[in-house]
Amino acid sequence: MRSSIRGAGAALAATALVVVVGGSWVGYQQLAGPSCSGEIQLAVAAAPEVAPAVEAAAAQWTTDGAAVGGTCIKVNVTASEPVEVAAAVASKHGASLAGVGQASGTAVTPDVWIPDSSTWLLRLKSGGATAFAPGNGASIARSPIVVAMPQPVASTKFGWPEKKLTWNDMLRAVRGDKPLRAGIVEPTQDAAGLSGLLSLTAAASGGGGDAQQATTAALRALATGRSALRQDLLARFPRSNDPTSIASALGAAALSEEDVIAYNNTKPPIPLAALYLEPSPMPLDYPYAVLPGIDQAKASAAKVLFELLTTQGFKNRLAVQSLRAPDGNWGEGFKAPQGAPSPAGGGTAVPPSGGTAAGGLDPVAIDRAVSGWSIATQSGRMLCVIDVSGSMKAPVPSANNASREQVTVAAASRGLNLFDDSWSIGLWTFSTELVGSRDWREIEPISPLSGNRGKLEQGLAGIRPSSGDTGLYDTMLAAYKTVQDGWEPGRVNSVVLFTDGKNEDKNGISQSALISRLKQLNDPERPVQVVIIGIGSEVSKAELQSITNVTGGGAFVTEDPSKIGDIFLKAIALRPNAPR
């Protein structure tokens, strides 16, 4: 979450105003208050660091007689943490965001949302908000992501500010024999943390050797120094000139350029250096998102407000807040940190005029980073259940004709490598009549990975399809009861089941009986999360969702089995949503 150490911006007059007349844009110097009537209330939620600039521009517009089509406009700007608004939007649109949790009871969705990063919009879309299509989305500001480091550490260990550094240099420092004390704000809840995570994991995965092992090691190194709140992370930087204090304090963290400037403006005993590493990380880009569902009058007012936020006057307002304009340039009074690229460097390519702020971002890479972080840095207890019915023999053309079974086992094996030894994991297979009249077979009971990792790897390697059908309902009930019977507090207790078909066990329980039994077993004091991954075109998502609607968790279906690796990571990264 964003820090609260920023000062409010001074009010600077906008150089131009625009209004909508008959659907066209017309430049206008001033609107007299008496010329409008009525009132349109436009609610704007903006990231705390940009909110003062937006509020000052809106206040100036109101003073000059803000109106659209003869109706007066009142703009209410609220400084809102992006993660809080994201939680509210996700709840409204039925999306799941790993690590975000539920919205607070007071959270509401605004008419216009200006988060600090387009990654929030992408995560909502890929998280299941299929109807979420915010208008505009163009950037109104920018702040490069830097590695913040106490200046004595930066100069003595890294040759700052003369030496140019890369993310590979930082990776070596974090994973060395005497590792640098690195920190990060929880990347699932903070866009700057996510940007730093993406850059560091990209360096790890591109370094040759076992890329997954290197990436997982980097994640765990960062996880030891993570903070839920930005101000908590900032408080861990050295507060004394004493060498012992510097050595024991936080040594590096991915933050925004604006964060570093704001921190140094408080005159700390040890200022922070801003290291602009290459390749440049994804910057904070402050998209202007008009949320779907607002009426035409508000949409017109939102367009006018956006135009105000693209003027030279607003660029100067941003400078007061230590923010750059969307193209990387800055307004009057901006004081760049030492070593800052000038003026437009320090970030990914800027989209062309009229383009969206999200240009160039890869939602798949973002999903992988968020899921991988959630899995590698948290502990849980899970029973993995894999379909071995005859249909799992079917070849997958997009996976070089490997069978569905082989693709599924490969995905589970890769996922296993992400779990650390604090996890407890078990493995079952299922079809029909695998063990006498029973549809499932226990390969390994649920136990700590510290003692059964090798056995799980061997068990996965030995999985082969049977000639049976799909005994889904009996297996699900038995798996749920097994996890619940051994339920452990303080951990996520879950069933993750892979299947490529509908229930085909004529001798087993019915769907209605399964749902009824799960409702009886459901215990809020001992919740069991169920994740079902459906593979292929024969799967009924409605059938799977009827189960997860009762248990919590989620159902994920793909007709292309080669994609289940990413789906698996995303699915097991889900956590029961506690209210924010």
TrEMBL record:
Renumbered residue ranges of the record's region Disordered: 330-358
Pfam family, one: VWA
Gene3D superfamilies named among the record's database cross-references: von Willebrand factor, type A domain
Occurrences of domain VWFA (ranges): 381-572
Protein name: VWA domain-containing protein
Low complexity bias: start-end ranges: 336-355
InterPro entries named in the record: VWF_A, vWFA_dom_sf
